[in-house]
Write a structure and sequence with these properties.
Blueprint lengths: L4 H6 L3 H23 L5 E3 L2 E3 L11 E3 L5 E3 L6 H7 L30 H5 L41 E3 L7 H5 L7 E3 L2 E3 L11 H11 L11 E5 L5 H6 L5 E6 L7 H8 L3 E3 L14 E7 L11 H9 E10 L10 H9 L3 E7 L5 E6 L5 H5 L61 H20 L12 E4 L6 H5 L6 E7 L6 H6 L3 E5 L12 E7 L2 H4 L5 H11 E10 L2 H13 L3 E5 L3 E5 L7 H7 L1
Helix pairs in contact: 16-17
């Protein structure tokens, strides 16, 4: 017979009714609690925690004692991540102000615009005023936006045209109007692909180089290039079509905003100068170095500028010099003497139909010529014992030594591209498990980028062109993105293990840097900053607020910061980003995604403070 509630009362089954009622109430409370603590709960107007992502197929990366990424077997706890989010609803009350530098504030680069230090220099003869002079303490002001700033033109259209209002510097239009560097057309700057030496256009010039020396195979044996005094970087921009990545560099000088033009176009570039200090690259890094009327006195200071090029050029690499002195006998004598003393040999020399002279030198790949020199000047450099020697290191009057493997044998030319991206780098440490760690690191980043970064995080790849990995390790993050229409500047911090040679051997580019100081780039030049366990060593030397200010300076409005770190470090960084009016989202308790907006301090903000 069916049991009804009425019958149960008649039969006085009160204990059962009490138990049933208690169970029903408990289930209701649990359901309400779960709904109230859903992971998609919005914590504030600009910080939210996403739905949990499925765990990546491989362990998440941690850092070895030397700060090189290796795999971790410690899984991410969803319970830990959920419990941590409550503490993230915190914001610092910082009264931000725009940099008070008049019209120069929009392009402020703290370590290159320290006019007080520059005025106190005893000499400018060797470009000392174009080098780094970082203010202490680091300024905590924000670079304002140019009037009328817009979301940048997307790649590949940006190679040929950018918004005038984003880089409103018209001087180059007039100064270089006969050379087709750049033109103004309505609301845009247009780049026709011309240059001082590109009289028939940069594409014709690139073809001219290959015709002059067919041994130069773009995108095969020639993958990483350094372009000295690059102008608006059209040479490097057009070589991208040939699977060649170029570090274009020039100083911040009277050629107004040339590097800013390059980065706004989506072309790899950095502010630098060959003055009194070494370039921030490792030895034997580049397959080819190019100079087209780059206005460097190679024989100056006893030939130290050319010795510096020799240092960063790999054995067997090429130096292309395209300039008037190449074919004028009265100006080439000192260059001939200097290149002879370096054992560089001329492998090609010609003049094209427009009168552009071209000479191509090749660096030796053995010591035989050095030993046969009658005068041992410049001498060979001493053996290295320290790392990161090209950070605030003075130029040397010596010939850098050729690279050797762990057995002391001279290294040969790199594996051709694209095989070199995944093949064993010659500069790997000598430890028995070094190769296994490298292979695992490559696999790990490929999986993490594919299944978490690209598929799971709220990042719009269509808006991303210029990317910086602030703690690059072996370059696994950049390698995993190689098929995307973007490029990555790999940064090896000076307090991390020196892996920059490995990055170049893989066919990628990068620099050394100290993140307690500002980076050599203009404001608003990168679309994505990636920081994997960057703060582990950094927090012991400088304040997270100063690092956040620099991130805000570098990143474009609408750009992203992707941080993978401990919850402790994320909880220190997030309140600073929120005070800058960034939106932030947390994934899996360790991936913080920040998106920079268009907010800048205004007069209204100051009135609110009073």
């Amino acid at each position: 017979m069916p049991i009804s509630v009425q019958n149960m009362f008649k039969e006085r089954k009160f204990p059962f009714l009490f138990a049933f009622s208690f169970l029903l109430i408990s289930v209701t409370i649990l359901l309400f609690s779960y709904s109230s603590s859903s992971p998609s709960l919005l914590l504030s107007t600009n910080f939210q925690v996403s739905d949990p992502l499925p765990p990546p197929p491989r362990p998440l990366p941690t850092r070895s004692p030397n700060n090189v990424p290796v795999s971790s077997t410690k899984p991410v706890s969803k319970t830990t991540a959920a419990a941590s989010v409550v503490d993230l609803n915190v914001s610092l009350d910082i009264k931000w102000k725009n940099c008070q530098l008049g019209p120069l504030a929009v392009d402020y680069i703290p370590c290159l615009d320290n006019w007080k230090a520059i005025k106190e220099l005893k000499s400018r003869r060797r470009m000392e005023h174009r080098e780094r002079h970082c203010p202490k303490p680091s300024p905590r002001c924000l670079a304002p936006l140019p009037i009328g700033y817009k979301v940048p033109v997307h790649w590949p259209k940006s190679r040929d045209m950018i918004w005038y209002s984003n880089v409103p510097h018209p001087k180059l239009v007039e100064y270089k109007k006969e050379q087709n560097w750049v033109r103004k057309s309505g609301d845009y700057f247009v780049f026709p692909g011309g240059g001082t030496q590109f009289k028939n256009g940069v594409q014709s010039y690139i073809d001219f180089i290959h015709k002059t020396l067919p041994a130069i195979k773009w995108g095969k044996n020639i993958r990483v290039i350094l372009d000295v005094g690059c102008g608006v970087a059209s040479f490097g921009g057009y070589l991208l079509d040939k699977d060649v990545i170029t570090t274009s560099f020039a100083p911040k000088d009277e050629h107004e905003a040339q590097i800013q033009f390059a980065l706004e176009r989506g072309i790899p570039a950095i502010l630098s100068v060959i003055g009194t200090q070494k370039l921030t690259f490792p030895d034997n890094a580049y397959d080819l170095i190019h100079c087209a009327r780059c206005r460097v006195h190679w024989d100056g200071d006893g030939g130290k500028p050319l010795l510096e090029l020799n240092r960063v050029l790999k054995p067997g690499g090429y130096f292309i010099w395209s300039a008037t002195p190449v074919y004028r006998d009265d100006e080439r004598d000192t260059m001939v003497a200097l290149t002879t003393s370096l054992c560089w040999k001329i492998v090609a020399k010609t003049v094209d139909s427009t009168g552009v002279g071209l000479v191509i030198y090749q660096k030796p790949s053995s010591y035989s010529c050095y030993k046969q020199r009658k005068e041992k000047l410049p001498p060979l450099c001493e053996q290295k014992t320290n790392q990161n020697v090209s950070w605030y290191e003075p130029l040397s009057y010596c010939i850098s030594r050729l690279p050797v493997d762990r057995m002391g044998n001279l290294l040969r030319w790199s594996t051709p591209w694209p095989q070199r991206l995944s093949s064993k780098p010659p500069s790997l440490p000598s430890e028995p498990d070094a190769e296994d760690i490298f292979i695992e690191d490559t696999k790990h980043w490929a999986a993490l980028v594919s299944e978490v970064y690209l598929d799971g995080l709220a990042i719009s790849l269509g808006r991303i062109r210029n990317v910086m990995d602030m703690n690059a390790g072996y370059g696994g993050f950049a390698a995993a993105l190689i098929d995307q229409p973007l490029w990555v500047m790999n940064v090896v911090p000076i307090d991390a293990q020196d892996t920059l040679s490995i990055i170049f051997e893989r066919g990628l580019i990068g620099v050394y840097h100290d993140w307690c100081e500002s980076f050599n780039t203009y404001p608003r030049t990168y679309d994505l900053l990636h920081a994997s366990f960057l703060f582990k060593n950094l927090k012991e030397r400088c304040d997270v607020i100063d690092v956040a200010v620099e991130m805000d300076r570098i990143l474009r409005p609408g750009g992203y910061l992707l941080v993978q770190d401990t919850m402790e470090n994320i909880m220190k960084l997030n309140p600073v980003l929120r005070s800058l009016h960034w939106s932030t989202t947390l994934y899996q308790g360790q991936f913080l995604v920040g998106e920079k907006g268009f907010w800048r301090p205004s007069e209204n903000d100051k009135q609110k403070e009073t």
